[in-house]
Amino acid sequence: MTLLEIHRLSLDLEVDGELRRIIHDVTLELDDGEAVGLVGESGAGKSMTSRAVIRLLPRGARLGGEVEFDGRSVPAMDARALRAYRSRDVAMIFQDARSHINPVRTIGAFLTEALVERGERKADAVTVVSELLETVGIHDVPHRLRQYPHELSGGMLQRVMIAAALAIRPRLLLADEPTTALDVTTQAEVMAHLDRQRRGRGLAMLFVTHDLELAAAVCDRIAVIYAGCLVEECPASTVHDRVLHPYTAGLLASRPSATRRAARLAAIPGRPQAAYEIAPGCPFVARCPYVVDLCRTTRPPLRLIGASRVACHRAEELAGQLSVGRFSGEERARA
Ligand SMILES: Nc1ncnc2c1ncn2[C@@H]1O[C@H](COP(=O)(O)OP(=O)(O)O)[C@@H](O)[C@H]1O
Ligand SMILES: [Mg+2]
């Protein structure tokens, strides 16, 4: 069953008195219990897309299109409905836990707050969050509950954030780069806890990351966003052998792998563009090794090809030929 439906989402933000387009056109669905990875480079609009789902946007933001959760329009919710939605249906895990946890309140107060606010007894709330802390690998719980955020490491605090998100028993988790700020070993541990808890509870998750391979490992489907446009959506299982958009192939090429040498480590040529910078054609035109004239003039619509949706004029023609090497330099000279 469809739980979340994002339909033709657009977003404008005010920058220096001018409205700037941050998201062009994002259409995405999540089923109950399904995990979708929203992947793209920095500035692509991943955070803003996930924040639109919970309506946590900068002041003056103008939202277009529709976001429906379980058939209810999120943009149309009044203050009371929005509060209920945020305290029961959907929970967000932010990249930087420290700046989202009140520094002058104890971990216990932070964790139980939402439950107490919605009318649950304090003692019951403490029991619930204590069990949750154990499940995300935090021991000596009574002591932890009395501590303040500055007494915990970044990894510990992110586990607290995950426990807080699970505590409200939401149906949807929004996880915005939940492990990016952590060191590599801690990243793997925290990710494993998040993944296990999400699966165990059958929660849907929108997992925001710049790391395509990580997304493919923990999600059912992948949605790739470039300059505020959704360019490809595909089953996670096909990411390694059949991506259809040149940008997705570029993302795959940008990650170190055991089979490619670090010296040939590819990055996509050029820099990521912001949504407000792109011309009328394909958003990826300035960096794409496969560009033809049509790409410069006409924005490709998302089209269904097999189990994927892709916004590339040449998708059929290039299917199976998109080369990771093409992005790593050795083929670009010949392109
Ligand atoms: N508060 C804001 N006001 C204006 N522009 C913003 C604001 N926050 C983010 N942006 C811009 O919106 C675009 C998308 O940002 P974001 O969703 O944070 O990207 P991502 O999470 O993919 O790195 C970027 O170009 C960024 O500079
Ligand atoms: Mg972000």
Summed up:
This protein is of the alpha/beta class. It has helices at 46-54, 79-89, 107-117, 122-135, 141-146, 154-167, 184-201, 212-218, 246-253, 293-297, 315-318, and strands at 2-15, 18-31, 35-39, 62-69, 72-73, 90-93, 172-176, 204-209, 221-226, 229-235, 303-305, 308-310. Helix 4 crosses helix 6.
Report what the structure shows:
It contains eleven helices and twelve strands. Helix 3 (107-117) packs parallel to helix 6 and helix 4 (122-135) packs across helix 6. It has helices at 46-54, 79-89, 107-117, 122-135, 141-146, 154-167, 184-201, 212-218, 246-253, 293-297, 315-318; strands at residues 2-15, 18-31, 35-39, 62-69, 72-73, 90-93, 172-176, 204-209, 221-226, 229-235, 303-305, 308-310. Strand 11 (303-305) and strand 12 form a beta hairpin. The protein has two domains: 31-56 and 77-223, 3-Layer(aba) Sandwich (Rossmann fold); 239-334, no CATH class. Residues 260-265 and 330-335 have low confidence and may be disordered. The strands form two sheets. The chain has an eight-stranded mixed sheet with strand order 6-7-8-3-9-10-12-11, with helices on both faces. Strands 2-1-4-5 form a four-stranded antiparallel sheet, with helices on one face. It has 335 residues and is an alpha/beta fold. The structure holds adenosine-5'-diphosphate and magnesium ion (MG).
